[in-house]
Amino acid sequence: MLLKPIKINKIILKNKIVVSPMCQYSAKKGSPSFWHYEHLKKLSNSGAALLMIESTAVSKIGRITHNDLCLYNNTHEKNLKKLFKFLKINNAQNIGIQISHSGRKGSAEIPWVRRNNPLNKNKWNTVSASAIKKDKNWPTPKALTIKEIKNISNQFEQCAKKAKRIGFDCLEIHMAHGYLLHQFFSNISNKRKDLYGGNLINRTRLLIEVASKVRSQWPKSRILGARITGSDRLEKGIKPKDAYYLVKELEKVGFDYICVSSGGIKTKTKLNIKKDCYNVDIARNIKKKTSLLVRCSGRIDYNHATKLINSKKIDLICVGREFIKNPNWLIKVLKDNGKDKIIPNQYKRCF
Q: Is 0.90 topped by the overall pTM?
């Protein structure tokens, strides 16, 4: 089942394995650098059915770092189009992009310079649902006004238009990992007293407004999804029941899938990322409650993935680190299972 095709709208994925969107912090003024061409070219030949390009900012203050990929002006669109064409010419694999706004997690240092730290120089003022710090050593973000919230919804919509023109097969909205949409969703970071805060319906409002605007622009023939947080992994944070509500709302909007993640609203949570399949417990319970396809990531190896797909606990598997550590692991699996057509001709003799 794992290696069999799946059709989503008019897009056919050759198997059920997706390359996770992995931030590289290597863009030049928001556009892809030579690193992206090399990095993504390797991944496009991995044998996975869908390659997701890293979290891409919908605005300048929506960046995580100065070196984030962006898609909010014509230059970004032009340069991402070049990258997209390069990848498509070299491989017929489906390509998607994840779009995001960092909120209070922005204005950060590049991880290998100082991990989980805000900038000391050339920083910018961040925004969030409420004026609550991400952590002790982080600056206090500005609480967004209603007008500014509406503007952010429009930024996501405009970004979706650009992604559509570029030709991406899949578009994913990042609503997890402690970024802005997650900041509105979580009662840990959202203490608003207006229509965007308080109860679950209000805390979900911006996420659904963004989803609806993006849905209005994204072709129904292509794939549309969201990465969501199934749990904050904190005592007073969002619980799976909150995620169920969000999923049902996304279902009404007309999304095709959700990718289930967890944690991230604060630097430290109770999430154990060293545990195999650490998001599967939430993902499989969500799948019982939705007609949407459910994707999951988090230390899922081939054997676990096979069991999860065969037992219909989830529909798609997202893999990141393993493709970096061992880029050709899936090619060997495909060869051993008679799926030679997916393997680049240049590689077949090596297996």
A: yes
